């Protein structure tokens, strides 16, 4: 197992890509901390992982506040005493809202979850990784962080910021044995878009097909594992070739 005994936090892991990431990371031996707001969903995901032979705990957390993120971190440390891998997966979309239609409230809510939650949680996790000279952080960005057109103003700006933060952190902390990389998914078929995916033109993508959550999860495993020890500050599209056009 590539991640045996690695204590791994996955934010936003009760549905969509995050759920699959948690399940796949657990199959590779990680001790997964499932993070979300819905108690029922947390229970279901953790029970499924355990039933399938993995190890997981569920923590209900509000990552839209610094206090909520601190509480999450404290609970993980009291349970395991360390964090080996952090997958900053939680994110929200702005429904392609253009700049002139974007309210201050929408802008703030998008940036709070998509960027500030990463800022808060990573600041807490990094010191103990630096002390141990080991760790991996995987930020889930988006192709909207590479090009315009895959999101509205606030979403596009927030994902560009995630990529910038990833590069900064890698340049500062790679010397301490910490891998920090970002994944930029294109259109991934999750329950959120399953009903409407047939209405999305496949000819927008060179492969003429869309991605599956398992593909993103497998990339998470690789970046968190020792196999990726020479990868740092990498910004990796997984988009069927969308961004090469």
From TrEMBL:
| Top EC class for this record | oxidoreductase
What Pfam families does this protein map onto? adh_short_C2
InterPro entries given in the database record: NAD(P)-bd_dom_sf (IPR036291), Sc_DH/Rdtase_CS (IPR020904), SDR (IPR050259), SDR_fam (IPR002347)
Give UniProt keywords alphabetically.
Oxidoreductase
One GO BP annotation of this record? monocarboxylic acid metabolic process
The terms under GO molecular function for this entry are:
cyclopentanol dehydrogenase activity
Gene3D superfamilies linked to this entry = NAD(P)-binding Rossmann-like Domain
Enzyme Commission number(s) of this protein: 1.1.1.163
Report the family membership: Belongs to the short-chain dehydrogenases/reductases (SDR) family.
Stated name of the protein: Cyclopentanol dehydrogenase
Please report the organism this UniProt entry assigns to the protein: Methanorbis furvi
């Amino acid at each position: 197992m590539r991640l045996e005994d690695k204590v791994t936090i996955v934010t936003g892991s009760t549905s969509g890509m995050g759920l699959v990431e948690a399940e796949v990371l657990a199959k590779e031996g990680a001790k997964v901390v499932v993070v979300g707001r819905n108690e029922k969903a947390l229970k279901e995901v953790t029970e499924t992982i355990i039933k399938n032979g993995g190890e997981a705990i569920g923590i209900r957390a509000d990552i839209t506040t610094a206090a909520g993120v601190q509480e999450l971190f404290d609970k993980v440390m009291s349970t395991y005493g360390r964090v080996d891998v952090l997958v900053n997966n939680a994110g929200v979309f702005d429904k392609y809202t253009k700049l002139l239609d974007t309210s201050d409230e929408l802008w703030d809510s998008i940036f709070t979850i998509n960027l500030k939650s990463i800022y808060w949680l990573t600041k807490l996790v990094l010191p103990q990784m630096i002390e141990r000279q080991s760790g991996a952080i995987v930020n889930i960005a988006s192709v909207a962080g590479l090009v315009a057109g895959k999101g509205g103003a606030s979403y596009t700006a927030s994902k560009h910021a995630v990529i910038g933060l990833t590069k900064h952190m890698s340049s500062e902390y790679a010397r301490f044995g910490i891998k920090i990389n970002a994944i930029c998914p294109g259109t991934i078929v999750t329950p959120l878009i399953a009903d409407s995916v047939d209405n999305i033109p496949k000819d927008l993508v060179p492969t003429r097909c869309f991605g599956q959550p398992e593909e993103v999860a497998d990339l998470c495993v690789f970046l968190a594992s020792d196999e990726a020890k020479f990868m740092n500050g990498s910004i990796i599209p997984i988009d069927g070739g969308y961004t090469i056009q």
